[in-house]
Amino acid sequence: MAASKDMFLDENGKIKDNSNHEGLLSVGVLGTVAGLFLAHQKFGNLSWKQLLEPAINLAENGFPFSRSMISFSEMLLNNKEKYFSTANVFLKKGTKAYQPEEILKQPDLAKTLKRIQKEGAAGFYQGKTAKFIVDYMKENGGIITGKAVGH
Fold first, then answer.
1. Using CB atoms within 10 A as the burial measure, which of 3, 54, 105, 147 is most buried?
2. What is the secondary structure of 26-44 as a DSSP string?
3. Hey, which residues does 96 pair with through a beta bridge?
């Protein structure tokens, strides 16, 4: 609701700082959770609980960091300030790269997935998860509000 046609442009009408691709202004409210939930409601055979269980298990218990993820972690090491939230997840303690076969756990993702598992799409667009998104946006210069996520 706060987006504007020139929000990515500088005073000369040029895109500023790649802001249309990077940073909080480039973020939109995802429809993926709502879309997957709707598809499940219409066509799903497994229970919603069963469907989310494997993802929760991987987030909670972790999986081996693969060799193909090494270049990603190297990029994060060189750009920690720019991608600090991502670095906090995909670097050990936000500062050191995982080595191949070390276990990467994502406890915050597991908690979010459990809310979605329990509450359906509302577990993302309302309540605790929505509040986290709105608060983060407000604290860091984003424009997504409670109205946008249904909070």
1. 105
2. G-----HHHHHHHHHHHH-
3. 92
Rg (C-alpha) for the chain, rounded Å, is 18
* Residue 15 CB-density burial (10 A; 0-12 exposed, 13-18 middle, 19+ buried): exposed
The SS3 call for residue 104 is strand
What distance in Å separates the CA atoms of residue 47 and residue 13, rounded to the nearest whole number?
Answer: 50
Rounded distance, CA 92 to CA 81, Å? Answer: 15
Whole-number Å distance between alpha carbons of 81 and 83: 6
Query: pTM of the predicted model, to two decimals?
Result: 0.85
**Alpha carbons 37 and 126: distance in angstroms, whole number:** 14
Backbone angles phi, psi at 15, to 5 degrees: -65, 130
**Cα 81 from Cα 57, distance rounded (Å):** 30
Query: What is the separation of C-alpha 18 from the centre of its chain, rounded to a whole number of angstroms?
Result: 20
- Residue recorded with tokens 């929505």: 130
14-55 confidence digits (pLDDT tens): 998 888 888 888 888 779 999 999 999 999 999 999 999 999
Mean pLDDT, residues 87-110 taken together = 93
